[in-house]
Amino acid sequence: AQSVTQLGSHVSVSEGALVLLRCNYSSSVPPYLFWYVQYPNQGLQLLLKYTTGATLVKGINGFEAEFKKSETSFHLTKPSAHMSDAAEYFCAVSMNTGGFKTIFGAGTRLFVKA
Amino acid sequence: GAVVSQHPSRVICKSGTSVKIECRSLDFQATTMFWYRQFPKQSLMLMATSNEGSKATYEQGVEKDKFLINHASLTLSTLTVTSAHPEDSSFYICSARVLGQATTGELFFGEGSRLTVL
User: Fold this and answer.
1) CB atoms < 10 A from the CB of A114, how many?
2) Is the sign of the CA dihedral A77, A82, A83, A85 positive or negative?
3) Distance from B57 to chain A by nearest Cα, in Å?
4) Residue A97 has pLDDT above 90, yes or no
5) Are the beta carbons of A43 and B109 separated by less than 8 Å?
């Protein structure tokens, strides 16, 4: 069965510090991987995605993620956190199993301390 | 990127009434739209897949008679919560895929609609 696991429901970092949000997945077919960000009372916005090709993917707002097949991981990083990065982050996997279906992780709330 | 718009963003209604939420793709056509429900501090729960010109496909445990979905055109899907009760209070989010981008599965999300049933 396909699944997405985000380690840590809450992550707190200081402004300027490294951001690392963890995501592991399981899939029986090659997955497409996504990170979405959600601000309070808003929908989700795509940060970045991995489909094929280069395993290090760069997204908006300075975020990037690396697809590691051997570790079944797609961790999200940002070298230096900003206060505006405080939000909920969702890792998602999309698979073509006779029709595309997207599975979301439970989400990780990022807190940024001044 | 593709834009999906939801309306209303907030709605408060009395118990027993019905509420309609609209989801529009503004600059692309969407044969398939998805409706999610999100409880506070939780992830998104897929409720149903809305298919243009045909019946929606509901996930297990979602009452199709309570959550009516209509996808009458390539740019509009509606979710109607019938005979709403306080336990239906939640954040409802729609999403869509752009035609021709089905091979990557990328979703574009609406802004969400917060329903409060008194």
Assistant:
1) 6
2) negative
3) 12
4) no
5) yes
